[in-house]
Design brief:
Elements (H helix, E strand, L loop, with lengths): L1 E4 L16 E4 L15 E2 L9 H6 L6 E3 L17 E3 L6 H16 L2 H9 L15 E5 L3 H12 L3 E6 L6 E3 L3 H4 L5 E4 L13 H6 L5 E4 L8 H7 L4 E4 L19 E3 L10 H18 L12
Parallel strand pairs: 1-2, 1-3, 3-4, 4-5, 6-7, 6-9, 7-8, 9-10, 10-11, 11-12
Helix pairs in contact: 2-4
Length: 301
């Protein structure tokens, strides 16, 4: 069985593989290490996109596409019959929830103001909001959203969970019109689908309270960037993802008051490759043994 992975160091975390497994490294932009038609199991570069059907035509013997991200929007509906698409659900749950909670705390406690004061060598005390007793909407009640909600609840926040469909303890997205005006914080942890693309539009933002906080730990296109810019800082925002991404140097979003941007680093921690490749090794062993694969992507996931 032939496996292609995009990181040389990823080999170190795959664990013991079946004797007939050949692992080759294929990074974006490199020449293929061998014939793509001979590859059984492909781990594409993170968020590899482009013309996916054309790319996959070269992989005529492919059995599995294993993503290193939970987001699969680039691939859904474009993988040919007979090829199993798997995402990395759960791999980035803890660290992305950590970024989300950290973003909320950093904004509410105004850490950036203190950093700027330090740059000026100014000792300037100020009071700030607190997450305790604040009302937080977590929009996207999957692994990351639930993890985020539990942490915020331990800090005393009143958390309302929102998902595509209502279930016990979770509101439906269709209820957002009633929920948004009451929220102090709206945290986005939804996947990017046809239903969530552009979900945070001018109307959505207009329903948010003055000075409330929007946190995007999902995907950039979930938020209508032009609509957020047009708010002019009425709604604060902490964004790990943007649309477009990377955000061009001259883009007006950089200068909107109350907006803080990090460069898609929610999952970029020093244990990243270990977190990503240990489950990949397990998937390779499962495929070789004819066992069901984990995290198969079905429908619009």
């Amino acid at each position: 069985m032939k496996v292609w992975i995009p990181h040389t160091k990823g080999r170190d975390y795959l664990g013991e593989l079946p004797d007939d497994t050949v692992v080759e490294v294929y990074r974006a932009g490199d020449s293929p290490p061998s014939d793509p038609a001979s590859v059984d199991f492909w781990v594409p570069p993170f968020l590899a996109g482009g013309d996916v059907p054309r790319i996959l035509r070269e992989f005529s013997g492919l059995k599995v596409v294993q993503l290193l991200s939970a987001g699969a929007e680039v691939w859904v509906g474009k993988v040919p019959d007979g090829v199993v698409l798997c995402n990395a659900k759960g791999t980035h749950t803890g660290v992305t929830a950590e970024w989300t909670v950290g973003a909320i705390l950093a904004d509410m406690r105004r850490f950036a103001d203190s950093v700027r004061d330090q740059d000026r060598h100014e000792w300037r005390k100020h009071s700030t909001p607190t997450v305790t007793n604040r009302r937080v909407l977590v929009v996207g009640a999957g692994d990351i959203g639930e993890h985020t909600a539990r942490v915020l609840e331990t800090l005393g926040a009143h958390v309302t969970r929102v998902a595509r469909k209502a279930r016990e303890g979770v509101h439906a997205i269709a209820e957002l019109d009633e929920l948004l005006p009451e929220a102090d914080v709206v945290a986005l942890t939804v996947p990017l689908t046809d239903q969530t693309r552009g979900m945070v539009d001018a109307r959505f933002l207009s329903l948010m309270r003055d000075g409330s906080l929007l946190v995007n730990a999902a995907r950039g296109p979930v938020v209508d960037t032009d609509a957020l810019v047009a708010e002019g800082g009425r709604v604060r925002a902490f964004l790990d993802v943007t649309d477009p991404e990377p955000l061009p140097a001259g883009h007006p979003l950089w200068d909107v008051p109350g907006v803080t941007i990090t460069p898609h680093i929610g999952g970029s921690t020093d244990d990243l490759l270990e977190r990503e490749y240990i489950p990949v090794g397990d998937q390779i062993r499962r495929l070789h043994a004819g066992e069901p694969l984990r995290n198969t992507v079905l429908g619009d996931y």
